[in-house]
Write a structure and sequence with these properties.
Number of helices: 3
Distance between the termini: 33 Å
Strand order of the largest sheet: 2-3-1-4
Shape: globular
Largest sheet: 4 strands, antiparallel
Number of strands: 4
Radius of gyration: 14 Å
Order of helices and strands: HEHEEHE
Strand content: 35-45%
Structural class: alpha+beta
Amino acid sequence: MDPLPSTSPTRMRAQGAPRSVMQLTIDVGSMSALLRILSGTFHGLVQPIRIQALDHARKIRLSLSMDALLAMGLMSALVSSLPSAEIGRITHV
């Protein structure tokens, strides 16, 4: 019996599933809500790879790395939980 289904995130990562990088800008006050989404809903499958303070540290720009299949789910979670978030470019690498 195979312990990992063929569509599990761990299996997809091991098989070289395509990766995406999403640019995101949020208010500083939304950072804890974003971290709850990333750690709770996505169980660590989305990793921040770059964090930059903007506008005298009132906003934060992040680059998030994820499997390409997670991009739409993350956008949906962000729009419903953080309506002021600005979703930018999504690059497939």
